Amino acid sequence: MAYLSDEKQIHTLYTEAKKEAQVWREDYKEYERLADNDLIDDLDETLPEVNDGSLAASLFKLPKRIINSNLTGRAKAEDRDEAWLTELANMQWENEIIPNANSQAPFHRKWKDAVRKAAIYGSVPLITLFVERGTYTGADFIVAHPGDVTLEPGKVSDYDSDVFFWDVYFTDLQVETMIEQAEKETKEAKKNKEDGYNKWNVEGLKKVLASKQEEDRDAKDEHNSVNGKSVKRGGIKFCVVFQRGVGAPFYMYHKGTKTTIREWSNPDPTGDVPVHYLYCYQDFVNPYGIGIVKLAGGTQNVLDYMRQADVLATQLGFRPPVKIIGDPDEVDEDSIVYAQDAKWYVGNADVKREEISNQIYSQIPNRISMYKTSLNQLIPTGDTSISSEAGDPNYSKTPAGVKFQQANLSIDDEDFKDNTYTTYEAVAKSMINTHFANMQGTDLMKLSDEERDLLSKAGLEFPVDNEGNPTNELEILWDEARATFEFEVEAEKDKAKDDEQRLEALLKVVELRTADPTLEQSLEMSGKRLNVGELMTSIIQLTTDNDKIIEDIDPKEMANNQMQQEQMMDMQGASEQGEPPQEQAQDPEVQQDQVNLQAVMQEHGVDENTAMAMLEAEKQGFDPEEIFAYMNGGQGEQAQ
Q1: CA dihedral 97, 102, 107, 109 (to 10 degrees)
Q2: Residue 368 pLDDT level (bands cut at 50, 70, 90)
Q3: Entry pTM
Q4: How many beta carbons lie within 10 A of that of residue 471, not counting itself?
């Protein structure tokens, strides 16, 4: 495969790519204004400084629905068969790379930022880096400003482009540090008689530093909110050139001096480039994609104007103009106010407040509602109005209509999630391959018992201590862990939505049972049985997380309950056939107590309570004659 190899080729292709990119990006400033809910530059001075802001609000809500903080996946070694290598890659991804890939912001926060920017610009570039920051050495990625990264001219997407240009800016101090690093690496390479990873043009770097060619970012590439503010917007500008291919040459190029100051090889062993775009929508015409702001921006501008007109009309309603007929010198205009017991001093003049009351003014709410409806058709929020009269009259407010709107919103979100998952897989694959290809020497990795057992089952042998127990520390020899990896996202399961659908289906079964009393009989005729208890248990579990509502019955208690139910059914059946009900079988000990009770009552002529008291006293060890004598004496005393 042919690559860019000299400075003239780089300069020509870079200039052409920037020129083409500016054509596609000419509306970026307007997109940024709408996304930030800023006022238009040429706002009529008579209009209040207010916007509707619906589109800007939706852009901040979008990432909350698209990015799940539990978004994850699994890597798999492609060119080696050892299972432990796949498990090691996944442990490095979860325990080392994700927690430490914090350039710019935490890992998942960057993905939310990427989703919002893709919706604004149509796409956003994500760049994989190999960093040394603090105690962490490994893969990372950044969300680059869309104006800083340019695709190869004539291509329709990032996958279609084999060359990428990334504009970067350095301070004088950073360039001086770069020169020191270049001199050190060049010296070590000569000492070891090898080329070294980086090929530096030290003299070219010094020439760039001496030229003092600091420049501001091109206003066309800078974010709209930065323009006009006294903040640092540039520096010494370089262009990093990435090329697709295994071992493809990368360059750092200075356009001002037309000098290549650094050359190195693609660090990804798969040959993939470290730049991946997250797209909102693609038409394969605009290589930078189509965003929500492009689709909805015009409608939002109209809605902003209608909001401004409504506020102005309201202000005029509170403070309408005053018509004075006659001598104005006799009028005290400051006295013409709406207040309790106000006195208007108008002399001989005729003063009248002109109230605004025309058809255009009265229809402003309906017009705002109409444009709001149009906007809702374009942005993934749907109609959020509550009453049946509000919002889009074509949107049904019935439960079925609301579900239909939710389904449409879900379609938009699912499409964006698919784009996000595809890009996530590409970035994760790039990061893991870059990480494993560029780590050097050895690292000590501390494992949990579960992780150690997982690696052991995958075929990795662990050293043991004096007692024969395997250690929980793994020494990674990076030269022995080289491989190329694939990565696959574990698709997010919307548990809440799934539970809602299950609950709805179960409730329909309950409704069917209520509506058709013969349902269970019909099922039994087909050899089936409806387990009502299991049905109700599932409904309650899907309705609440309170696990105390349903309790498990002890097996013995359950058996007794079942036996009692069977006896009751037998008694009911016998009564229907005219047979006398059989006495319920009792415990022999209980039967004997009943016999003894009847005997005491007959022998001594006492009632049931007295007989029970006598039997209880006998159980306590008292002599029966003493008990009888006491009971007779007590009763006699009571009689006297």
Answers
A1: 170
A2: confident
A3: 0.73
A4: 13
